[in-house]
């Protein structure tokens, strides 16, 4: 008899918000990635996190609140401090780890697939990030 997995799926705005908060806790505690967010991008979490939550609600729930163009935002960041392949790999590892720690299900799997594609697309699109 197998144990029941009580982790929920990423199937509501509240769960996505919880995920984003835990994910950013990891990112901002990381010595490699934190400086990109804090020193280079100089993100204001009170502004940034609601955008990220809207973004993932759009991707996973079909909500329409997020209307920004993420590639332009990351191109500007890349111009200030070139993003490297290792940055994308580390971001993705934290993303998957955070999902797997707290969630399971179709939308959790979808989030990891989408994040993998996002990391690969950004790495390809930003000049010299693959180096």
Tell me briefly what this model is:
The chain is mainly alpha-helical and 131 residues long.
User: If helices are DSSP runs of H or I spanning 4 or more residues, what is the number of helices?
Assistant: 6
Mean pLDDT: 91
Strand content: under 5%
Q: Which structural class do the helices and strands define?
A: mainly alpha
- Gap between N and C termini, in Å? 48 Å
Low confidence ranges: none
Quaternary organisation of the protein chains = single chain
Give a description of the structure.
- The protein has 131 residues and is mostly helical.
- It is built from six helices and no strands.
- α1 packs across α3, α1 packs across α5 and α5 runs antiparallel to α6.
- The longest helix has 20 residues.
- The N and C termini lie far apart (48 Å).
- The model has no long low-confidence stretch (mean pLDDT 91).
């Amino acid at each position: 008899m197998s144990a029941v997995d009580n982790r929920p799926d990423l199937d509501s705005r509240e769960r996505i918000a919880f995920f984003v908060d835990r994910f950013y806790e990891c990112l901002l505690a990381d010595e490699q990635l934190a400086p990109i967010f804090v020193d280079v991008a100089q993100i204001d979490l009170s502004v940034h996190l609601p955008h990220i939550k809207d973004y993932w609600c759009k991707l996973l729930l079909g909500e329409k609140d997020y209307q920004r163009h993420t590639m332009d935002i990351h191109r500007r960041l890349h111009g200030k401090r070139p993003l490297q392949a290792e940055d994308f790999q580390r971001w993705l590892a934290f993303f998957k780890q955070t999902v797997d720690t707290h969630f399971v299900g179709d939308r959790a799997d979808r989030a990891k697939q989408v994040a993998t594609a996002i990391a690969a697309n950004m790495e390809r699109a930003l000049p010299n990030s693959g180096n």
